[in-house]
Amino acid sequence: MSTITLHDTHNNDHHDGHDHGHHEQSFISKYIFSQDHKMIAKQFLITGIVMAVIAMGLSILFRLQLAWPDKSFPILETFLGRWAEGGRIKPDFYLALVTIHGTIMVFFVLTAGLSGTFSNLLIPLQLGVRDMASPFMNMLSYWLFFIACIVMMSSFFIETGPASAGWTVYPPLSALPKAISGSGLGMTLWLISMVLFVASQLMGGINYVSTVLNMRTKGMDLWKMPLTIWAFLLTAILGILSFPVLVAGVVLLIFDRSFGTSFYLSDIVMGTQVLPNEGGSPILWQHLFWFLGHPEVYIVIMPALGISSEVISVNSRKPIFGYHAMVYSLIGITILSFIVWGHHMFVTGMNPLLGGVFMITTLIIAVPSAVKTFNYLATLWRGNIRFTPAMLCAIGMVSFFISGGLTGIFLGNASLDINLHDTYFVVAHFHLVMGSAAIFGMLAGVYHWYPKMFGRMLNEKLGYLHFWITFICAYLVFFPLHFLGLDGVPRRYYAFTEFEFMQKWVTVNIFVTWAAIVAALAQIAFLFNFFYSIFKGKKATQNPWESNTLEWTTPVEHIHGNWPGEIPTVYRWPYDYSKPGSEADFIPQTVPYSQTMSSNMPHDFEGNAESERIQREWEEKQAKEKAILD
Questions:
Q1: What is the pTM of this model?
Q2: Domain end marker among 536, 563, 592
Q3: 568 neighbors 543 (Cβ within 8 angstroms)
Q4: Residues sharing a CB contact under 8 Å with residue 380, sequence separation 6 or more, in sequence order
Q5: Element (H, E) at 228
Q6: What burial class does residue 47 get, using C-beta atoms within 10 Å of its C-beta: 0-12 exposed, 13-18 middle, 19+ buried?
Q7: In the list 163, 306, 335, 599, which could disulfide-bond 228, CB 3.0-4.6 Å?
Q8: Could you tell me if 235 and 295 are in contact, meaning their C-beta atoms sit under 8 angstroms apart?
Q9: What's the CATH number where 293 sits?
Q10: In a domain, 161, yes or no
């Protein structure tokens, strides 16, 4: 496989580009061990889709248990064997389903599937780069992620079953291999999988940051970058700084499990046996886990916010409102996300003074989030909106971000959180603000950049069908759970029939489960549309959405190196839509200001040396022509 010179970000490649991987590649080097960022993006996306289908299947299984706790479903025994003897899921397997569902969705779908896909696809294409800073490390990043997925799923095929301690794997269930069946080999596999996953994310993150900071094309300064790139850059920085803390916590957990240490264990009695552990604290694990866990929320949501910024601006045919405010709010979220982890721990007996500090920082982080929401709404306001499936998903993402984020104000308040923390209110909150919002941001990206990934268009009617059913069902599934939480219904319970006051919520659980089943069926439309269109979809034009950013200047047919000749120069920011005085309603970043004199504004040239030079040359040329005519 030919290597490509990556340091020549612009005019040093005057050749026609035919040496950029244009020779025949084998199937293995092109599709499996590919070093082309576009192929790696597809690998992340398709793996993420497969993992999402698995996670959704697991959620349907445990929703059946919650809706009909006293009924048996013989088909479950056929598929699950001894984990569902008599057609009823066993309590310990129910906990395993919840654990693996949460782990897959948070890490393997929303982190790797979202950031891995779109950071890989868009960072080189939108910045005018031939490929990532290290294509080989990029390939390794995907394969470590893939192996992590395999290790995680292999735990379903061992005798003691998958990890069963919730997706946060709190000790002592995770620290004592003999605590329950899911604390044994299944938990070990979970820990191995997560270390591989973190290694994958660190490789990817270092690559993304290096590429953004060092390899932009001529004219592409930081303030001309699309908001997508800002979001991916800050997400990568968050991951690089927070993921190693989880690995440190995992190493200590392995020591407790295998070498008799007591980092997280103290005064434990198992049955009649008093264990020798003393001096440790499970609260230490919570501090280490949530130091990653809260930045993780933003590692998930920031790429979705960046994608939505691009999709909303393009389809509103308007400049994004408050570009600088959007960038500063992303930076604010990045910094503040490191000092709010304690709000997950208000119920641990935290010192009220410390709890107050975390409460204040938690409420402050709502400010940059609100800025982004306001700017999305202002961009949509009086826009010439095109309701493509991508645009609907982006607006859906904003809707979930608002409705889910509002309940975060309740949970960020220590005195309220103590009452709500272990109830379904928390489940409802994070499934709306993180799960649903991030998924819809991801779907917006898939619908918008599918032509760039596969050279074909998705079927719009199937896209509308998929969006509306999924959007409505997501609210029908998660919104009612707020009321269960307000009534004190605890989360993580196997059955509610044991408690008199919870009996009235069984009908709500049945309704929620049917909504979840309909939502799952709606994904068939998406999956068919996605895979069918790869081969049979309508062929895409070069710039189907009439967008300004650089990725739409590359040929529809993929080449390794992205541009066949010189990489284009950038002259302007990426959001010149519907500019007064312009003939077209979009002006690509590659169009010099000298070609758009009728629409230029004084502020276009402020602090822009290249543009000022072009403007000066154009004015001199005009003056000379006028002098000749005179």
A1: 0.91
A2: 536
A3: no
A4: 312, 316, 395
A5: helix 227-258
A6: buried
A7: 306
A8: no
A9: 1.20.210.10
A10: yes
